[in-house]
Amino acid sequence: MSVIKISDVSFGYIQSIQILKNINLEINEGDFLAIIGENGSGKSSLIKCILGLNKVSEGNIEVSGRIGYLPQSTEIQNNFPATIEEIVLSGTIPNNVRKIFYTKEDKKKAEEVMRDLELFDIRKKCFSELSGGQKQRVLIARALCSTDKIILLDEPVNGLDPKIVKEIYKMLHKLNKEGLTIIMVSHDVERCLQYCTRVVEIENGKVVKDVLAKDYLSGGIK
């Protein structure tokens, strides 16, 4: 079943210069989809179109349910003065809702996610005191608190130690096996082929390959 359907989508900050050109893509429930491509190919622009942060010039994007989002680490304030628990709980708040108090359901959801991601025992620690790998787990936990269905990650392992990278991929693989649909922008093609189920390659704003991960090296040019 489709959870995101992208139909004939084009996008450009300036109308005469299109970054994305006639993108057609259907993301299915249970996919662990890697979006790969060179810098400037349009990967992050596509992600922001899916999230509604970029307004498409042409075409249409249909999304079924809320999306949990982890932006690139360069967009995150690493010295944010809050505890793990506070940050994870904040993921339960929809973007268009202002509220002061968390419900019992919010707190239960956050506790479950923190336990699953092995953060519960250190939940009172300040975010700024954490290692790079711990910070990424916290931010993934926050994204998971905003959805039961789809999570979108933009370069989630950039700059991390190889051991931590492997741990995060294993964690994402486990979450996917439990039913979470994952969309991930990445430069790490080798690990994408190892853990993801599907690979979409973007070149100059166009989808040039959309294949099962196991078939990526053997072709599948669209």
Concise description?
The chain has helices at residues 43-51, 84-90, 104-116, 132-145, 162-177, 189-195; strands at 2-11, 20-28, 32-36, 58-63, 67-70, 150-154, 181-185, 198-203, 206-212.
Computed over alpha carbons, the radius of gyration is 17 Å
Helix content: 25-40%
The count of helical stretches stands at 6
Largest beta sheet: strand ordering? 5-6-7-3-8-9
What structural category characterises the helix and strand content? alpha/beta
Name the descriptors:
222 residues; alpha/beta; 6-stranded mixed β-sheet; 3-stranded antiparallel β-sheet; 9 strands; 26% strand
Describe the protein.
This protein is an alpha/beta fold. The chain has helices at 43-51, 84-90, 104-116, 132-145, 162-177, 189-195; strands spanning 2-11, 20-28, 32-36, 58-63, 67-70, 150-154, 181-185, 198-203, 206-212. Helix 2 (84-90) packs parallel to helix 4 and helix 3 (104-116) packs antiparallel against helix 4. The model has no long low-confidence stretch (mean pLDDT 88).
